[in-house]
Specification:
Layout (H helix, E strand, L loop, with lengths): L1 H9 L1 H14 L9 H17 L3 H5 L5 H11 L2 H12 L4 H11 L6 H8 L4 H13 L1 H13 L7 H25 L1 H8 L2 H19 L1 H6 L1 H25 L4 H12 L3 H11 L4 H26 L5
Helix pairs in contact: 2-13, 3-11, 3-12, 3-13, 3-17, 5-9, 5-16, 6-7, 6-15, 7-10, 7-18, 8-9, 8-16, 8-18, 9-16, 10-11, 11-12, 13-17, 13-18, 15-16, 15-18, 17-18
Length: about 300
């Protein structure tokens, strides 16, 4: 069964793109997957992430403080500023600009851990950075979104903060608590965690594409280009800054991947909840989720053939 789960999870980009195409051309197939489903799906995937973590993962932070500080700071400075820059560079309309900035201000995604493994990066550091950025997302995501997206539309920072706590931080902490108190139960449920996350974001993508099909069709070029530039800048600047500071190649690859890959599911859920009149904000999260997996997969294939020495 575990072999099947691994096979299914590895084909995540295939499921994502396939359902997005179906939802775009046949919106009625996914219109049922609306806001309540999207919010519960994110919470379920975050619970799955928490079930894979232990207290030892938190203790490891003290063993590599410099790398963790660098990765965390890069995640919450480079990427939000890249999001704002892309919006300014392409002169995006407010809905799309808000969506790109919101994606850029979210924590690292769980897919970054798999990409780090494929790219011969530091997987332990990747897990820690995803954990740290996720736990602190209730502070930094509203903060950056308010500062940068607030130039386009009013942003409810407190509302974003509470949503991040409810949808992301609380499920992760619950998963960690279950792992601590009921390790055997956590093992049984946690084995399905990555698969639940794959299914959840695939369905979230389908639901948002179906609901925003007309807006996506009218703005397809800008959506694709803005998402592509956002993640290219994130991967590139994250790697460059780490190398300039003379960190090892494995750390540079890890920070690059963590900066370049965001939690698209969280961005989509927050966009749907807090910017309901801007369908392009949620659509930007979907395009980001697809694009980061394509770009991240290509970069991982390149690095996999090259030594970290």
């Amino acid at each position: 069964m575990q072999r099947f789960f691994n096979w299914f999870n590895n084909l995540y980009p295939v499921w994502l793109v396939s359902l997005a195409i179906v939802a775009f051309f046949k919106p009625q197939t996914m219109l049922w997957f609306d806001k309540p489903w999207i919010l519960w799906s994110l919470a379920a995937s975050m619970l799955g992430m928490g079930l894979t973590l232990s207290l030892d993962d938190f203790r490891r932070i003290g063993k590599m403080p410099g790398c963790v500080a660098l990765g965390f700071a890069s995640q919450y400075t480079i990427m939000p500023l890249c999001g704002w820059f892309v919006g300014w560079l392409l002169k995006l309309e407010p809905g799309l600009a808000v969506g790109i900035i919101l994606v850029a201000s979210c924590p690292g995604g769980m897919a970054s851990n798999m990409i780090s493994y494929l790219a011969r990066a530091n997987v332990a550091l990747s897990v820690i950075l995803t954990l740290c950025s996720t736990v602190m997302s209730f502070v930094f995501t509203p903060l950056w979104t308010g500062w940068l997206a607030g130039t386009y539309v009013p942003v409810d920072k407190l509302g974003l903060c509470l949503s991040a706590l409810q949808l992301v931080v609380a499920p992760v902490m619950l998963g960690v608590l279950i792992r601590w108190k009921l390790p055997r139960t956590a093992d049984k449920i946690g084995a399905c965690g990555p698969t639940v996350a794959v299914i959840a974001f695939t369905l979230v993508t389908g639901g948002i594409v179906a609901a925003s099909a007309e807006a996506i069709a009218a703005n397809f070029g800008k959506l694709a280009l803005s998402a592509f530039l956002l993640h290219i800048f994130g991967f590139g600047v994250g790697y460059f800054v780490t190398k300039v500071l003379r960190y090892p190649e494995s750390v540079a690859r890890t920070v690059s991947i963590e900066v370049g890959m965001q939690n698209g599911g969280m961005a989509a859920s927050l966009a749907k909840q807090h910017f309901p009149t801007m369908p392009l904000a949620a659509a930007a999260s979907v395009f980001s989720g697809v694009m980061q997996n394509i770009v991240g997969g290509l970069i991982a294939s390149w690095w996999k053939r090259r030594s970290v020495e």
